Amino acid sequence: MARVDFMPFTPEEIPIGKRFNIEGTRLLWEIRLNEEHQFYTLYLRDQDGVLIYTMKVVYGIDLLNAIASLEITKLIKAFDFTGANDTVTPENFNNPVKIYVLDQ
Questions:
Q1: DSSP calls for 26-47
Q2: Are 10 and 94 in contact (CB under 8 A)?
Q3: Cα 99 from Cα 6, distance rounded (Å)
Q4: How many domains does the structure of the chain reveal?
Q5: Distance from first CA to last CA of the chain, Å, rounded?
Q6: pLDDT tens digits for range 74-102
Q7: How would DSSP label each residue in 2-14?
Q8: Is residue 87 classed as helix, strand or coil in its secondary structure?
Q9: Rounded to whole angstroms, how far apart are CA atoms 7 and 99?
Q10: Distance between CA atoms of 14 and 24, rounded to whole angstroms?
């Protein structure tokens, strides 16, 4: 059975930055809320704090799909395993929609 983990971000902490090590790659993951349009944005920084990537957090889309230079084979997706949601909003972020680290 595939292992499923989620990244522990909560709406109360946002904006937040946490360091995660995924498959030997350590990055600073920042999540920010665009309050005017009510969506979340992911900012990835390398170990030196240099911004290497930014993306709107979209339900079901691999957050790292456009970064070919990272050697990460895991899928990082915002998802709701209860099946009740198909978008990421301030009302459902982290309950029940979470950012999961999934095997491909």
A1: EEEEEEEEETTTTEEEEEEE-T
A2: yes
A3: 5
A4: 1
A5: 12
A6: 889 999 999 999 999 999 998 899 999 88
A7: ---EEE---GGG-
A8: coil
A9: 6
A10: 26
Joined tokens for residue 42: 């992911």
pTM for this model (two decimals)? 0.85
Q: Range of 49's domain?
A: 5-102
Tokens for 40?
């979340």
Residue at token pair 């999961």 = 100
Residue 51 in 3-state DSSP? strand
Q: 4-11 — which CB contacts under 8 Å span 24+ positions?
A: 4/100, 4/101, 4/102, 4/103, 5/100, 5/101, 6/98, 6/99, 6/100, 6/101, 7/76, 7/98, 7/99, 7/100, 7/101, 9/93, 9/94, 9/99, 10/93, 10/94, 11/90, 11/93, 11/94
